[in-house]
Amino acid sequence: MRIFDQLAARRPWAEDERLVLDQLQRLADEVIAPAAADHDRTGDFPWPSIEALNALGMNAMFVPEAYGGAPMSYRLYLECVAVISEACASTGIIYATNFHGMKPLIDFGTEEQKQRLLPCIAEGGLASLAITEEHAGSDATGMRTRFTPDGEDIVVDGAKIFISSGDVADRLLLFGKWSEIDDARAAISALVLEKGTPGFEVVRLESKLGHKASSTAALRFDGCRVPRANLLGAPGDGLSILLSSLNKSRPSVACHALGITRAAFRDMVAYMNERSQSGRKIVEFQGNQFMLADLATDLAMLEAWIDYVAALVDGGSDDFGLEASMAKLRASDLAMRMTTEAVQMHGGYGYCNDYRVERLMRDAKITQIWEGTNQVHRQLIGRSFHDK
Ligand SMILES: Cc1cc2nc3c(=O)[nH]c(=O)nc-3n(C[C@H](O)[C@H](O)[C@H](O)COP(=O)(O)OP(=O)(O)OC[C@H]3O[C@@H](n4cnc5c(N)ncnc54)[C@H](O)[C@@H]3O)c2cc1C
Predict the structure, then answer these.
(1) Which residue puts its alpha carbon closest to atom 37 of ligand 1?
(2) How many CB atoms neighbour CB 315 within 10 A?
(3) What percentage of the chain exceeds 90 in pLDDT?
């Protein structure tokens, strides 16, 4: 691991950022990682891990000070997602989903909305981002959830599926179509739905291949009355809010995949240095060394790319959509390759759940599917070269 220790030591962090990372790493090692296999086995929501993160004030990192937060750089936030996800991918995505759900409110909400809705999140509340519907996955413009204005309220009718933390969230950032606008794209609007709103129902929790401790909920909204004061922007602003928010959540899911990748690489290298066959450690076989060389190089490049994208965001750029797509695409493909090779290098033991690599491989798969499938990201990147 020498090269990665060297790269990690050379990454520049301010003193207060190092302090956060050191404290978080300790918590990841002592609380989150030791509980991960159990949470995976039982499927129980990892409350102790979430509570430990809240005791460190991790949500406050991305909430502005005026609303109870203690904001730090986006780059630090991304690294925190990777550290938590390396310890437990389920806990990592629950933490990151708080950011994904609340960032649109931070970026597009009014002063009054932020004063009212954000302090609960800064204190450790959970958030969800609810876009996907049964008939509207990759093409979100096909969503059918309806927002009908009625006096001081908006009446929400419809359903969402696959919503991370949808059953436990204190705040849901919900997308739907404004009933008075006919155009499929122009009608998309966004509002914040608060926990306990009558008419909101959790229909079921999905049983999944991986991320078993992160809940994935199907939700129904039946005449759900949300104060009009919770609408983000104007009716019809939803699509631009959605696209802008995804640009910041995609590097975040890339870092979640990066955490899984780091865990798999670490476990694979350790095992290859331990296991012997034909009188030699399996790391001594040249074919295996070539595989390690390729994966290690891709991992190092990915880490550098993520720092590059983070610097764009921290520098105030608002034009980094393709860079974000590249990060998501490369990180998730690498997570799948790395975890698959890690299982392979563990031989039959890798297929059994005594070793963590089996869970890592199951956890890696969804990273190629959510936040825009990798086909969609290839399309976004590829079509940017089409001269019109
Ligand atoms: C565990 C989990 C957690 C999730 N969390 C959330 C969440 O918190 N919030 C939320 O809103 N959603 C969430 N999702 C939903 C996720 O983002 C969608 O599943 C994803 O966007 C794909 O949509 P779909 O499943 O409807 O697949 P589809 O869009 O039906 O795609 C099916 C296949 O067709 C391919 N395809 C589709 N369109 C194209 C195209 N134009 N070109 C080429 N290929 C294409 C896809 O790549 C895919 O391989 C979650 C899903 C899961 C499983």
Answers:
(1) 138
(2) 9
(3) 98
**Cβ atoms 134, 145 nearer than 8 A:** no
Reply yes or no on whether the pLDDT at 188 is more than 70: yes
Q: How many angstroms separate the CA atoms of 356 and 343, rounded?
A: 9
Cα dihedral 196→67→241→138 (10° resolution): -50
Q: Which amino acid does the sequence have at 66?
A: A
Residue with the smallest CA separation from ligand 1 atom 11 is: 131
Residue ranges in the chain assigned as alpha helix (H):
2-10, 15-27, 33-42, 47-55, 74-87, 89-108, 111-117, 119-122, 238-272, 286-314, 321-345, 347-351, 356-365, 374-383
SS3 244: helix
Q: Is the pLDDT of residue 371 over 80?
A: yes
Distance 373 CA to ligand 1 centre (A): 6
pLDDT in tens, 217-255: 999 999 999 999 999 999 999 999 999 989 999 999 999
Ligand 1 centroid vs 369 CA: distance in angstroms?
6
Average pLDDT over all residues of the chain: 97
DSSP 62-82: GS-GGGT-----HHHHHHHHH
Q: CA-CA distance, 36 to 61, in Å (whole number)?
A: 24
Cβ(344)–Cβ(291) under 8 Å?
no
What stretch of H or E contains 170? none
CA distances in angstroms from 206 to 164, 189, 299, 300, listed in the order given: 10, 26, 31, 35
Q: Nearest C-alpha to atom 2 of ligand 1 is from which residue?
A: 162
Q: Are 82 and 259 in contact (CB under 8 A)?
A: yes
Question: Burial code of 137-175, b = ≥16 C-beta within 10 A, e = fewer?
Answer: beebeebebbbeeeeeebbbbbbbbbbbbbbbbbbbbbb
Rounded to an integer, what distance in angstroms lies between the CA atom of residue 26 and that of residue 57? Answer: 15
pLDDT 10s digits, 309-364: 999 999 999 999 999 999 999 999 999 999 999 999 999 999 999 999 999 999 99
Cα distances from 140 to residues 149, 187, 243, in angstroms, run 22, 12, 11
Check if 205 has its Cβ closer than 6 Å to any atom of ligand 1. no
